TrEMBL record:
It comes from Dokdonella ginsengisoli. The chain crosses the membrane at residues 6-27, 48-81, 93-124, 145-163, 175-193, 202-221, 236-257, 264-285, 305-326, 338-359, 365-386, 398-415. Pfam families: DUF4010, MgtC. InterPro entries: DUF4010, MgtC_SapB_SrpB_YhiD_N. Keywords: Membrane, Transmembrane, Transmembrane helix. PANTHER family: DUF4010 DOMAIN-CONTAINING PROTEIN, MEMBRANE PROTEIN-RELATED. Residues 181-389 form the DUF4010 domain. This is MgtC/SapB family protein. Residues 15-131 form the MgtC/SapB/SrpB/YhiD N-terminal domain.
Length: 420
């Protein structure tokens, strides 16, 4: 953390941040004034507003309050005569925000510096934001985004964050997170599709979505492919790209929990990663060469379907109950069976559980690597099942790619019958 630079009690670092932030905002305002002659404020005005805010804080609360009243009065005076109906108060609000951030810089310089950057980005992105809200998003899109926001901010906090039901494996809060993630993947893929086109937007959404749940990402891309068959090839590439994140997370979990198990599984994971890259590149090349994606219609459907997300979470809940029942029935010797059933729902959770068993010497590193491979295989089967949500044209190529990756991992590991 940046230490304060004080000179006779004066926060010099905060003053520098205030002036620098005012300069940053002022540069954007000055460039915009070259074509908007009625714009209030510019380079000098923004720097003065930030400086006044900083000096007011240095002089004390009374001076800061007087400065706020003075700047606020000037802002009101400048924005009061709205002579044109298209005129907005953005410039006046930006000037007052610059003053407030200048005051914040005294004592909270790092936060103020970050907010200065955010303010400048918002001001500079005027055309992009307007185009996004008016041209990219439709009325139905806004309704779906509001539904997703309500699920995140209203429904999810109300779900109990504790285990319920038999075997103590079902957590309503986590299942709710999974539903929201399937919806969010669909929404991100939809926005990427609208902003960057089918070839780039969906693949980027697939890669980032895979870091939370590759299965949910595949299900979300399947929904997108079913909603718009013209985008099927790009959705296939995005679904396969999510597998990269799964392998990376697998390696990271083992590195933290059981490094010895990671060593035993290193070469199979590397082979699976290389195979994943090959199938992803092949899918992307196939998507780029497809005429269907190139001429995709402008009607991209809806960002997500709530009923599909709920059905997917229900399947995961059943899989978790089955894994717990197997482990309870078979006992410690059921580690492989439990890993298989647990991996069917979440390969990362299964990997974490197996890694902890290896860390406590319950399993040898080789046995742990074999159990994780079994969990990965079960999860691949579940992802193939999730791919069928997009129809045969989507599900078959995705399943073929996942099977190829899984076969390489098993062949390189050379699975042997478990020995206890």
């Amino acid at each position: 953390m940046q230490e304060k630079i004080l000179l006779d009690g004066i926060d010099l670092y905060g003053l520098v941040v205030a002036l620098g932030g005012g300069l940053l905002v002022g540069l954007e305002r000055e460039r915009r004034r070259t074509w908007d002659s009625g714009l209030a404020g510019g380079l000098r005005t923004s720097m003065l507003a930030a400086l006044i805010g900083a000096l007011g804080m240095l002089l004390g609360p009374v001076a800061a309050a007087l400065c706020a009243v003075l700047v606020g009065a000037c802002v009101l005076a400048g924005g009061w005569p709205l002579r044109h109906r298209h005129r907005t108060l953005t410039a006046e609000f930006a000037l007052f925000a610059t003053f407030l951030l200048g005051a914040l810089a005294i004592g909270h310089a790092q936060l103020a510096a970050a907010l200065f950057v955010v303010l400048t980005a918002l001001l500079a992105g005027k055309e992009t934001l307007h185009r996004f809200s008016r041209e990219v998003l439709g009325e139905q899109d806004l309704d779906d985004i509001l539904l997703l926001a309500a699920a995140c901010l209203i429904v999810l906090p109300l779900l109990p964050d504790r285990v319920v039901g038999p075997y103590g494996v079902l957590n309503p809060h986590k299942l709710g997170l999974l539903v929201i993630w399937v919806m969010a993947v669909g929404a991100v893929g939809y926005l990427g599709l609208r902003l960057f086109g089918a070839r780039r937007g969906l693949v980027l959404a697939g890669v980032f979505g895979g870091f939370v749940s590759s299965t949910a990402t595949i299900a979300g891309m399947g929904q997108r492919a079913r909603a718009d068959p013209a985008l099927t090839r790009s959705c296939i590439a995005a679904a396969l790209a999510s597998n990269v994140a799964t392998l990376v997370q697998l390696a990271l979990i083992l590195a933290l929990v059981s490094p010895a198990s990671l060593v035993a599984l290193a070469w199979p994971l590397l082979g699976a990663a290389l195979t994943t890259m090959v199938v992803c590149v092949a899918a992307m090349w196939h998507a780029n060469g497809g005429a269907a994606d190139a001429g995709a219609a402008q009607d991209y459907g809806r960002p997500f379907v709530l009923s599909h997300a709920l059905a997917f979470a229900a399947i995961v809940a059943v899989a978790l109950l089955g894994a717990a029942a197997l482990q309870d029935w078979l006992g410690p010797r059921g580690a492989f069976a439990a890993a298989a059933f647990g991996g069917f729902a979440d390969v990362h959770a299964a990997t974490l559980a197996v890694g902890q068993l290896a860390a406590t010497a319950t399993l040898t590193p080789l046995q742990a690597a074999q159990a994780i491979a079994v969990a990965f295989t079960a999860n691949a089967a579940f992802r193939c099942f999730a791919a069928l949500s997009g129809g045969r044209a989507f599900g078959r190529p995705v399943a073929a790619g996942l099977i190829a990756v899984n076969v390489v991992l098993l062949l390189m590991l050379g699975l042997e019958p478990p020995r206890f």
